[in-house]
Amino acid sequence: MVILISIATLVVKMAGGFFALRFKDKLHLILGFSAGAVIGVAFFDLLPEAIELASGRFEPSLITTVAALGFIVYMLLDRFIVLHSDHDDHDGHNHHRGTLGAGSLVFHSFLDGLVIGLAFQVSAIIGATVAVAVLVHAFSDGINTVNMILKSGGTRERAFRWLFLGALAPVAGVLSTLFFSLPASSLGLILATFCGFFLYIGASELLPESHHAHPTKWTTFMTVIGIAVLYIAIRIAG
C-alpha cells in the first residue's frame, strides 16, 4: 500500500509539472497561484504538522523559532552565498536561484515520502491520512518545481529534469523508511525548517515575480485562490 501511494504521488506531481509546461504563456498567473500554494503549504500543512510531531518534546515557541531560522537561512543562501558565487552574472544568478528553489522543493518531496513511510510505521490509518495530505499538494509541488526553473530562465528540458527528480523523491523517501526510524520530534523540527524555506520562496521569489510587468489585480487574485485551494484541500484531507 505504501509503495502504491508513493507512486501515486509521483504521477500527481508529474501532472502538475506538465500543466505548468503546457501553459507557459500564462506563467504569471500560474506563478501567482503557486505563490499562494507554497505559502498555504507552509502555514496550513508544514507548520501544524511540525508542531504536532515535535510538541511532545519541544515547546511550540521553539518550533516556530526553527521555522523563522529556516526563513533566515534560505534568505542568506539566496542573497549572499549564491550572489557571491555568481558575482555580476545576472543570468547565472537567476540560474542558481532556480536550482536552489527547485532543489529545496525536491528535498521537501523526499521528506513527504519520509513522512508517509514513518506514518505507516505507526498505523495504517495514520499513514493513509498523511498520504492524502501529501497527495493534495503534490500537484502544486509539480507546478512550483517547474516554475522555479522557468522563471529563472531555464529551459523546458531542464524544468522537466527537475520535475522528474522531484517526482522520484517521495518514492525514495518512502523506500528509505524501510531501513530506519526517526523520532517524531526530530522530524517535526525538519518540517519546521522547511516551513521557513517555503515562506521565503513564496513571499520573496514567486509572489514578486508573478506580478512583474503584469497587471497586479489578476495575479493577486490567483495568489488568494492558491492559498484558498490549499487550505480547503488540506482541511478536507483532515
Structure explained in plain terms:
This protein is an all-alpha fold and 238 residues long. The protein has one domain (2-237). 87% of the residues lie in helices and 0% in strands. The radius of gyration is 17 Å and the shape is globular. The protein starts with a helix and ends with a helix. The model is unreliable at 83-90 (pLDDT under 50).
Helical percent range?
A: over 70%
Query: What oligomeric state is this?
Result: single chain
Show unreliable segments.
83-90
User: How many beta-strand segments?
Assistant: 0
> How much of the residues is beta strand, in percent?
under 5%
When the domains are counted, the total is: 1
Q: Report Rg.
A: 17 Å
Shape: globular
Instruction: Give the number of helices.
Output: 8
**What's the N-to-C terminus distance?**
19 Å
Compute the average pLDDT: 79
Assign the structural class, choosing from mainly alpha, mainly beta, alpha/beta, alpha+beta, or little secondary structure: mainly alpha
Sheet having the most strands: none
Order of secondary-structure elements: HHHHHHHH
